[in-house]
Design brief:
The complex is a heterodimer of chains A (about 160) and B (about 425).
Chain A: E1 4-8, H1 18-28, E2 39-43, E3 48-52, H2 61-65, E4 71-74, E5 79-82, H3 92-96, E6 103-104, E7 111-112, H4 122-126, E8 132-136, H5 137-152
Antiparallel strand pairs in A: 1-8, 2-3, 4-5, 6-7
Chain B: E1 2-6, H1 10-22, E2 27-31, H2 44-49, H3 62-67, E3 70-73, E4 78-82, E5 87-90, E6 94-96, E7 99-102, E8 106-108, E9 121-123, H4 127-135, E10 140-144, H5 148-159, E11 163-168, H6 180-192, E12 196-199, E13 203-207, E14 214-217, E15 221-223, E16 226-229, E17 233-235, H7 238-242, E18 253-254, E19 266-268, E20 273-276, E21 283-284, H8 289-303, E22 316-321, E23 324-330, E24 341-347, E25 350-357, E26 360-368, H9 373-381, H10 386-394, H11 396-401, H12 403-413
Parallel strand pairs in B: 1-2, 1-7, 2-3, 7-19, 9-16, 10-11, 10-16, 11-12, 18-20
Antiparallel strand pairs in B: 4-5, 5-6, 8-17, 13-14, 14-15, 20-21, 22-23, 23-26, 24-25, 25-26
Helix pairs in contact in B: 1-8, 10-12
The chains are: A alpha+beta (about 160), B alpha/beta (about 425).
């Protein structure tokens, strides 16, 4: 599990919202995009979509800002996690996250974030376009490299 | 190598952990005046309000120190630093050091006024303060100062059923963080929760026979049985000043980018260190948790000879009034030297204000919904120009590289 990351290719995303539904169903018990960890940003005018999830920063701003000691580094999964009993709901991490991923639970009043479903991310499993994948770190970098190379050669969208 | 850390706060502990992580053989001795293991001073108002149990404040237990190999000397204060011989003298003993990290923190300011120390007057900075406050029964409380601590303390007391009055000497609430317009909104929000807010009034005297009974301000007399001083924090630098360590303009220990003080082998981090602001570049004494942790890390690494530079403190404060969050990031517009251009928006989701100086983002203030604030915060940190943002948003390829940026730009800047 260690060394595996969520690899998101926004070019493949059609904005169907399956990941949001599955995520909230698995983690919160109801189908509600508002409670989903992963969120799809939709640019309707340009017909482009991008799912946003935790970037698993090594020097994570959310972890540094947490004043209650609720956010800790899970070395097994390789990303910061929230201890919900310890969270005081101060929202520092919501503001600190530069990707806008850290979410705030409207009922529980605590922060929550992607925790990779304990090493088996359901969003990646159910994403039928292949925009979200759970792959080896090296593989992800290789894919990104391919994407960038294809763009450089002017073959955007063909790769 | 023997490292002595004075202070057991966020900065000191993070420095210790960093040193242990990179050099497990290093001997670390932590000297602290307080007897408790690391706790979160930022969460004290939550505990006062009853949202948090007292034992949840602790972030470490005494065993944690032992198991990570950090020697502790709590409830002992360092009396003197001998810079030449490289040793510190505490109440009971003398210790030699190879590297010294000053993480002495700060203390709450109590103004020099008649009766300022009467029984029934409190500060809210340490766990001892909180314990005293919890034991004290009060009906009517006055909170002096409307900074972050003042506002949080006032709300906590309100939740405990007190009648609360905030007295602020400057002419708006949260004068160091917010511009006038959002400050007015915050004041109204505070008043809606039942807290009386008096701005532009200085406290002249505190009176009472056995304990606080009256607080005299410029315009009126307030009857109360409790007074909380939340007028500010001052760096705790007496020890350093006596040892001949150079202090900066703000009264804190002057450090370079590697968190080293004017004397070799002595480092400073946390509330007692004077660093510079990431956005303005001016000397600033950042008393925020994230800055302290980051500074502790940098000081720890530099102690071990791993040259690391601190990237500057970034001002970011988040709070909540009556379930409505607010945040202030970067600089404040009213005090800025030079022309400032403000973009404002006010809709059903809340109020926001982004400040630009000559096209560069310098600050943001939001009351209401915090969505995508972090992204704008990141842009302020990078001193992004408005043009760069528009370039990124208009170019579809760039947009997919940073969809969050585009989303934030739409949310905040599309209609201005």
């Amino acid at each position: 599990m260690e060394g595996q990351v969520l690899f998101i290719n926004p070019e493949k995303c059609v904005g169907c919202g399956t990941c949001e539904m599955v995520c909230s169903l698995v983690n919160e018990g109801k189908c509600s995009p508002r409670l989903s960890r992963i969120r799809v940003v939709r640019f309707t005018r340009e017909a482009r979509n991008a799912p946003i999830s935790c970037a698993a920063c090594e020097n994570a701003p959310c972890l540094i800002t947490c004043v209650a000691g609720a956010i800790y580094w899970d070395s097994e999964l390789g990303l910061p996690r929230v201890n919900h009993d310890q969270c005081i709901g101060c929202r520092q991490c919501n503001v600190a996250c530069p990707f806008g991923h850290m979410n705030f639970h409207p009922d529980k009043k605590t922060a929550y974030k992607c925790e990779l479903c304990e090493g088996d991310p359901q969003c990646a499993k159910f994403c039928w376009t292949g925009a979200i994948e759970y792959v080896e770190n090296e593989q992800a970098i290789e894919k990104k490299r391919e994407l960038a190379a294809s763009r450089m050669l002017g073959a955007e969208g063909k790769a | 190598m023997k490292v002595i850390i004075i202070g057991n706060g966020a900065a000191g502990n993070h420095a210790a952990e960093t040193i242990k992580q990179y050099s497990p053989a290093a001997q670390i001795l932590m000297v602290a005046r307080e007897e408790y293991p690391l706790y979160s001073p930022c969460a004290l108002p939550d505990c006062l309000a009853g949202d948090l149990a007292r034992n949840q404040l602790f972030l470490k237990s005494a065993d944690n120190y032992q198991s990570s190999g950090i020697e502790t000397l709590f409830a002992q204060s360092a009396q003197k630093i001998d810079v030449k011989e490289q040793k510190i003298i505490t109440d009971r003993d003398v210790f030699n050091y190879d590297r010294l990290i000053m993480a002495t923190g700060s203390r709450a300011v109590i103004p020099k006024l008649p009766g300022a120390h009467l029984p029934g007057t409190f500060t809210l900075k340490t766990l001892d303060d909180l314990d005293k406050l919890m034991d004290y029964k009060s009906q009517r409380a006055v909170v002096a100062g409307s900074g972050n601590i003042g506002v949080e303390a006032a709300q906590a007391l309100r939740a405990r059923g007190c009648q609360v009055t905030i007295v602020e000497a400057r002419d708006q609430v949260m004068p160091r963080l917010f511009d006038r317009k959002p400050a007015e909104m915050l004041k109204t929000m505070l008043e809606n929760t039942g807290i009386q807010v008096l701005v532009g009034e200085q406290i002249k005297a505190v009176e009472g026979r056995k304990r606080v009974e009256l607080v005299e301000t410029e315009h009126r007399t307030l009857i109360c049985d409790m007074l909380i001083w939340a007028v500010g924090l001052a760096p705790e630098c007496t020890l350093a000043a006596e040892a001949g360590i150079e202090l900066g303009k703000t009264g804190a220990i002057k450090v370079d980018r590697q968190m080293q003080s004017s004397i070799p082998n002595i480092y400073a981090c946390g509330d007692c260190a004077e660093t510079y602001d990431m956005v303005s570049g001016h000397a600033v004494n950042s008393m925020l948790w994230p800055s302290a942790r980051r500074q502790g890390l940098v000081a720890g690494l530099n102690c071990l000879g791993m040259a690391t530079e601190y990237e500057g403190s970034f001002n970011i404060v988040v709070g909540e009034i009556d379930e409505k969050p607010f945040t202030a990031m970067g600089l404040k517009g009213d005090d800025y030297q030079g022309p400032v251009w403000a973009m404002e928006g006010d809709d059903h989701r809340g109020y926001w204000r982004i400040l630009l100086d000559d096209q560069r983002l310098i600050g943001m203030q939001v009351v209401g919904e915090l969505k995508y604030c972090g992204i704008v915060g990141g842009l302020i940190r990078n001193r992004t120009t408005l043009q760069e943002i528009w370039d990124a948003v208009r170019n579809p390829r760039q947009k997919m590289n940073s969809p969050w940026l585009a989303e934030a730009a739409y949310r905040y800047m599309a209609n201005s």
